[in-house]
Amino acid sequence: MCGIVGVLAEKNAASMAFAALKRLEYRGYDSWGVAFKGGKSIEVLKKTGKLPESFSFQAGSGTALAHTRWATHGKVTEANAHPHLSNDKTIAVVHNGIIENHEELKHFLEGKGFSFNSETDTEIIPNLIQLFMGEGQSFKEAVRLSLKKIDGSYAVVAMHAGERELVAARNGSPLVIGLGKHSIFAASDVPAFLDHAKKVVYLNDFEMALLGKKAEFFDVLTGKQLEKDVEEVNWSIEQAQKGEFPHFMLKELNEQRFTIKKAVQQPKGIIEKVSSMIKNAKGVFFVGCGTSYHACVSSAYIFSHVAKMHVNVVLASEFRNYEEFLEKETLVIAVSQSGETADVLDAVKTAKKRSSKVVSIVNVMGSSLTRLSDETIMMNSGPEICVLSTKSYTSQLAILLLLAYVVAGKQVEGHELVEKAAALSQKVIDESSAPAKELAARLKNSRDFFLIGRDLAFPSALEGALKIKEVSYIHAEGFAGAELKHGTIALVEEGIPCIVFSTDQTRPLIMSNAQELKSRGAFIIGIDSKPNKLFDYFFRVEEVGNANPILMILPIQLLAYHLAVEKKLDPDKPRNLAKSVTVK
Ligand code: M6R
């Protein structure tokens, strides 16, 4: 859940670490810190709150570490911010993950005379390294032995005041090594170093890297040296920058003009292969969290309508309850932008334990999920930096829609439908932008929003509500059209904004639900291809049948964005959230 960086560079390592950290800010923004060499000692700078736009470091050649925190252990204070130092101040560590046996290790170290300055579990690590070095171990070996003592998850980078090397390791939390011409990086995610390195090495669990004049790799458990593949990333630095847009959310939302189409431009054979796995499976489960879960809910309707097939949709965090129904022939399809969501990885591990097959639909290349899956369909959306999922959602919908059509033997029809939606997305975004801004100014002080949709538009109501809540902090709830009157309609009062997703197929019934709301004074915002006298406000969204969910969410993404801007909130970094939720 945190962002970590280690840099080894000829000069300006501290500034480079800060710049890299800035690109990982979406991973956590409660507090931050940088450690760098100041002569023979390690200087540490820590601050609470978000990272400033820039920061100048007087020194810092050789090695530097940086960390942006999303608090798990201990409050948001400077003392709890990383990097953490050993008692003798010669070793600094940044860490993402959770050390489950930290209490036990803390008592062990206290027994050896160590003291602690923070409430974090991380502070254990530099002190264990100090202990092992005191017993005569090399820096690299001391890190390895320390990690062997840890139960739980970690991505760790350690530096030593007297060494020109960094040691990085992972188990359960993401870490990638970037190999540049004049620098080497270890970071939670590739965008951190895209301006310096495109050659990468993805670490697997229990692997470590010794970064010096070159990068060497070792097994944490055995110490044995490993041969690792160097891969080339195809993301550009421009994709990881805001460019002319004020926020990543607006940039990424606008990119849907291209990303929806790109999502279905897949390498030859993969869609066919996965669709035949779906056809031949004895039970199919779609799992995901948050927005990705909403894409899964959509897929249940799509598979039912198009492929005439029942699929199970389960929140990844609840999937373990289904373990006994998993067999060798069961197929689990894990949907995740980051490929690092802990609950999704846990669900996949449950499936693997039962020898079920796993297919993932992922955006981030080299992520943990890709390495746990039998087959992976890449979303091709490019880096999604804003904490809110926008373009990744419509890419997921496009891929799931295509899969259902291929399962039904209607590949050409599926492609045509996605391409039609992709072409219309430009029009919907352009035509909705100004009205969404105007509507946001009018509704920014609302206390609640209710959203309703039936059939395929029901998951759109769920996703629309999530978008509004997480970015504007206005309470919003999505319902299947008929459900609101089973209780929640008691909350509807004069002027309350209610968003109604309507399609050719659902119009008669959803309008009667809209009428029920209107009769109680609701302010009705229609998302439809046709105007209606019930609508107080109207976003026109062309009818594209089974691809409707791809287009219907666009005006609400825009509305959510403008609500945040109107409320002077940062849409890219909503409070309490982080882009990748790497804790269960
Ligand atoms: O990376 P993932 O798709 O697995 O992430 C799952 C959720 O954490 C994510 O969709 C979250 O709900 C977003 N903030 C929604 O905008």
From TrEMBL:
Question: What top-tier enzyme class does this entry carry?
Answer: transferase
Q: Which CDD domains match?
A: GFAT, SIS_GlmS_GlmD_1, SIS_GlmS_GlmD_2
The keyword Magnesium is annotated on this UniProt entry: no
Q: Which domain of life is it from?
A: Archaea
Q: Cite the InterPro entries for this sequence.
A: GATase_2_dom, GFAT, GFAT_N, GlmS/AgaS_SIS, GlmS/FrlB_SIS, Ntn_hydrolases_N, SIS_dom, SIS_dom_sf
MF-aspect GO terms: carbohydrate derivative binding; glutamine-fructose-6-phosphate transaminase (isomerizing) activity
Give the reaction(s) catalysed. D-fructose 6-phosphate + L-glutamine = D-glucosamine 6-phosphate + L-glutamate
Per its UniProt record, what Pfam families does this chain match? GATase_6, SIS
Domain Glutamine amidotransferase type-2: from-to ranges: 2-214
Q: What is its EC number?
A: 2.6.1.16
Where is this chain's protein located in or outside the cell? Answer: Cytoplasm
Under the heading SUPFAM superfamilies, the entry gives: N-terminal nucleophile aminohydrolases (Ntn hydrolases), SIS domain
Keywords associated with the record: Aminotransferase, Cytoplasm, Glutamine amidotransferase, Repeat, Transferase
Q: Where is the SIS domain?
A: 274-413, 439-574
According to its UniProt entry, the protein's GO biological process terms are: fructose 6-phosphate metabolic process; protein N-linked glycosylation; UDP-N-acetylglucosamine metabolic process
Asked if the Swiss-Prot or TrEMBL record annotates the protein with the keyword Transferase, the reply is: yes
A Gene Ontology term for the protein's cellular component: cytoplasm
The record describes the protein's role as: Catalyzes the first step in hexosamine metabolism, converting fructose-6P into glucosamine-6P using glutamine as a nitrogen source.
Q: Which PANTHER family match?
A: GLUCOSAMINE--FRUCTOSE-6-PHOSPHATE AMINOTRANSFERASE, ISOMERIZING, GLUTAMINE--FRUCTOSE-6-PHOSPHATE TRANSAMINASE (ISOMERIZING)
Protein's UniProt name: Glutamine--fructose-6-phosphate aminotransferase [isomerizing]
